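Let's practice the habit of predicting before peeking. Look at the sequence and jot down your guess about where helices and strands might fall. Then scroll down.
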Amino acid sequence: MSLRRGAAHGAAWNFATAVGERSIGFAVLAILVRHVTLADVGLIAIASALSEIGRMITTGGSGEQVVASPGDRTVEAGAFWAQFILAAAIAGLLFVAAPVLARAYGAPALSWVTRVLSVNIIIGTFLVVPSARLVQNFGFRALSLMSLGSTILGGTVALALVFSGRGLDALIAQRIVGITFYAAAASITARWHPPAFPSLAAIGRALRFNIPMMGAAFVDYVAATGYVVLIGIRMPVAAVGEFRIAQRLAEVLRELTVFPASKVFLPVFVAVRDDPDRRFAVARSLVDVLAIGSLAAAAVAGAVAKPVVVLMFGAAWASSAPVFAALSLIVPAAAVYAFVNPMLTALRRPVLVSVFAAINAASTALAAWFAAPEGLLILAWTLAARGLLTAILLLPALSIGIGRPAWPLLRLFTAPFIALIAARVAAAALVPILVQQSGLGIVAMFSQLAVGGIIAASVFLGTLALLAPRRIGTLLGQLTSAFRRVPVVAEPVG
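Done guessing? Here is the structure:
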């Protein structure tokens, strides 16, 4: 198929599987949180963030290096062993430092939980190269199904444990089982096994490429999720648990609206990196889809935040709803940032990837550190405002990536942003009038969910149809084309 069809088909598979995966994941989470405490959720949030930071550092750049060097087994060997050596070192360091971290957070149980979860750092090294091989060949269907399988298996184990009265163990096992299955399945599907130890020169080349990307992966994770380790120092662990529920909902919103398309960006931009005009055309097409999709999702999510939280997790978690409504506004900024890493990576500019990623992470960390003591709602709105500012600061990175001024891309967000404001305002004004039931009962929540969702979606689409009617038709055509069943073969360039 053509490059555009290949990208669209891959994004469609990513999206379809992400919907199924997140639906299952949240069904499991909805059960788990009813059997654990706020402090348990906060504890796992901090320990998971610490281990994930280590995993992101060690695997950052390896997959991108393999994708950018198709068929080069020497690159694969160097990438794997470089990340494995670093993973073992960081996992060991985290194991030793766990008691110190537990005292810093005032949570003794954090010590053993962190030590157990540190094993994920090493397991993750067996996932990167085989998944990169599949990405090279647009094997997103296989990757998506394996990701779905890891969610189902991890959730099954977690539910078995939680119904045995082992809530905290369930949260831990869910993470370890999922990534272990994913790594094993990807290795089998890609017909990959750990290669023989390569020359030191190959490892050195991998590190020279990967180190800037490792820094980018670290700061990317801090900006997206890892800043919870800072929040944990500035507020009680139980408050971290409350925030984590809202944060996780916002993450899933990003995963459904931004990440399915962003996963195909790197192979697409590698294919067009030597053709500036085609690179811009592809970027503009993808940004248009993301701008409409991400802002539509944010519009509806904010309108139905309360019924979503209460129906999924129970009335005890209702205070997380306004936090989620504010955090959902970060999604459009994530859509802008989703272009920076793959475009600059495809152009072999890993140092610039690190620079712009550092800007994103530093602004997030500062916002989280100073706003956290003021309360969860102020923290959430501060992070949302930071996202808008960072999107503007990333314009130079977009300009470098497309080889021309980036304002034409950013302007694609204008009409959907106006539609988002109209949708949120309309839902806030009309839902209290149309839904007479009060309280947090099931009937009231389902009524608010249905009415709020319909109002927000209708007003968003209606406003967008008035401001940019052609873009809706183009988007529908692209989505229809994306789900047609055709062989996934990248179009040759040149």
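How did you do? The chain has 26 helices and no strands.
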